[in-house]
From TrEMBL:
InterPro entries: Glyco_trans_28_C
Organism listed in the record: Amphritea pacifica
Chain ranges of the Glycosyl transferase family 28 C-terminal domain: 1-116
Protein name: Glycosyl transferase family 28 C-terminal domain-containing protein
Length: 175
């Protein structure tokens, strides 16, 4: 299962619609269950995908239990570069692709998510960083047509968890 999550603060259409377009182009949308968690003010463009692909579900805000259940079920999680997604992916052993919200598109107040992405690039075997759509497509091709699945990478989740805690401490101590 593919879980796409953007948190609860702001819409992130650039990411979701770009990601769905790439997944469609790579012929992935019709082969996997896909759950898209987005803000309640998602655009009409989402309907194109949910109407075309019966296995694609669009949900608004999720409670903590539902959010955890989707992470537990997912093989691959695509998320904004928020810490909640990184922590959950390490906890559940998901392949996680993070993508930053950018201030220039009014997706956030500043570009701290770019800093988060740079901090986590190449730190964990299951956390992948895409700064733009070109990197996102490259990661998707690797994950779905060449690289490991959750089962293959999940065995090192305890080590990833230890490294995550140390990594978060390093990031926090920088400020």
């Amino acid at each position: 299962m593919i879980f796409i999550t953007v948190g609860t603060q702001l819409p992130f259409d650039r990411f979701i619609l770009g990601l769905l377009s790439v997944l469609e182009e790579c012929d992935i949308l019709d082969k996997h269950k896909v759950v898209v968690q987005c803000s309640s003010d998602h655009t009409e463009e989402y309907l194109y995908y949910s109407d075309k692909y019966s296995n694609l579900e669009v949900v608004d805000e999720l409670n903590k239990e539902s959010y955890s259940l989707y992470f537990e079920e997912a093989d691959v999680v695509f998320s904004h570069a928020g810490m909640g997604g990184v922590i959950r992916a390490v906890e559940f052993g998901n392949q996680l692709v993070i993508f930053p919200r950018l201030a220039e598109y009014r997706e956030h107040r500043n570009n701290h998510q770019v800093d988060t992405c740079h901090s986590f690039r190449n730190k964990f075997s299951n956390v992948h960083v895409a700064i733009d759509m070109i990197e996102l497509k490259s990661i998707i091709v690797d994950l779905f047509f060449g690289k490991e699945t959750k089962e293959e990478s999940g065995s090192d989740w305890k080590e990833n968890r230890k490294n995550l805690i140390a990594g978060i401490a390093n990031v926090v101590n920088q400020y």
